[in-house]
Amino acid sequence: MKRTFKIAVLPGDGIGPEIMEAAIEVLNAVSKKYDLQFEYKEGLIGGAAIDATGDPLPDETLKIAKESDAVLLAAVGGEKWDNLPTDKRPEKGLLRIRKELELFANLRPGKAYTALLDSSPLKETLIKGVDLVVIRELTGGIYFGEPRGIEERKGEKVGFNTMIYYEHEVKRIAKLAFEIARGRKKKVTSVDKANVLEVSALWREIVTETHSDYQDVELEHMYVDNCAMQLVRRPKDFDVIVTGNLFGDILSDEAGALTGSLGMLPSASIGERYALYEPVHGSAPDIAGQGIANPIAMILSAAMMLDITCKVPQAARDIENAVEKVLNEGYRTGDIWSPGTKKVNTKEMTEAIIEHI
Ligand SMILES: NC(=O)c1ccc[n+]([C@@H]2O[C@H](COP(=O)([O-])OP(=O)(O)OC[C@H]3O[C@@H](n4cnc5c(N)ncnc54)[C@H](O)[C@@H]3O)[C@@H](O)[C@H]2O)c1
Ligand SMILES: CC(C)[C@H](C(=O)O)[C@@H](O)C(=O)O
Ligand SMILES: [Mg+2]
């Protein structure tokens, strides 16, 4: 029996529309094999939405998202909108949709591909076998804390934000991290700055408390500065990294660079009711409009959707295997290209992946 899923499609800005088209072609290819049907509904977000409506997240887009089984989002942002105030920028649309859909956890897997070992800035011996996931808290912390602002004090301007975590926010992300670790190598590294910040001291206390229900999982605590360093020194020692919104943003880009390119890194933003799938990278304005972006992060984000929302893990594995095969065959977009490999554009990479599905 055919299973139908409603998918909200939010291409956004820069390379967004180019990589979204690629992901939809791959989903359509896989749908035939697994008797799935996708009903896509496109919405505006980010700069594209500002240009059309003045709002980076129009009500109509939120409505489409809430009426869907899953949201696919490519990327937002660009120079054109960089001088707008923080709460009017394209990025605000992304932050708001995460908050409105209560997507409290962002799963960002980072895996070393054998074929890409020479694209990593690290030595092959360090990077071979890396398989980790950063679980980033996504609807709290300094991104959303109040008070925030820029104001005049003592005759000069002052900018301020608040890093704040409620106990329940830490507990639910910690629980998820332990659950996910149970299906992996059973190790959680909780990353904070508890030697300086009260918010981190509480984070550490709640994670430790939550761990008492997961004694089969190893828990270690690490300061964020040390973690940034250990990630390049011994990345293989990490399994699940759980951390707050800001630290997770930074560490996941770092993990991306380790394994080759940001253009390879998918993510899933999940909550109790909704799920949104988005690459870790941004709108890459420097290469937008040229048809040369790496579509793999977006395609693998769609694969995470097949796994988590559609619950067809085999279809997700098919896509992941197809990606691995084209990399083994030497196909490379510019960001992962090295001498001796075949340089391809977005379309050619997508077609090569589809051929292996
Ligand atoms: N989720 C999102 O929508 C998101 C995430 C990060 C940044 N942004 C926004 O994107 C804009 C650009 O930000 P940035 O330059 O700091 O980060 P970026 O991730 O867009 O780009 C960083 C570098 O990586 C390259 N890159 C990224 N994705 C790639 C891909 N798929 N294929 C090939 N190369 C790729 C870019 O060309 C660039 O050199 C900003 O407006 C920023 O706010 C959006
Ligand atoms: C564009 C920006 C708001 C966003 C974030 O900081 O969360 C991005 O960097 C990401 O990693 O998804
Ligand atoms: Mg980021």
UniProtKB/TrEMBL annotation:
Sites where the protein binds NAD(+): 78-91, 282-294
Localization (cell): Cytoplasm
Pfam families: Iso_dh
Free-text comment on the cofactor: Binds 1 Mg(2+) or Mn(2+) ion per subunit.
Cofactors named for this entry: Mg(2+); Mn(2+)
Isopropylmalate dehydrogenase-like domain sequence ranges: 6-353
Molecular function in Gene Ontology: 3-isopropylmalate dehydrogenase activity; magnesium ion binding; NAD binding
The protein, known as: 3-isopropylmalate dehydrogenase
Organism this protein belongs to: Persephonella marina (strain DSM 14350 / EX-H1)
InterPro entries: IsoCit/isopropylmalate_DH_CS, IsoPropMal-DH-like_dom, Isopropylmalate_DH
Site (Important for catalysis): 143, 193
Name of the coding gene: leuB
Reactions catalysed according to its record: (2R,3S)-3-isopropylmalate + NAD(+) = 4-methyl-2-oxopentanoate + CO2 + NADH
Binding site for Mg(2+): 225, 249, 253
GO biological process: L-leucine biosynthetic process
HAMAP family the UniProt entry points to: LeuB_type1 (MF_01033)
Known function: Catalyzes the oxidation of 3-carboxy-2-hydroxy-4-methylpentanoate (3-isopropylmalate) to 3-carboxy-4-methyl-2-oxopentanoate. The product decarboxylates to 4-methyl-2 oxopentanoate.
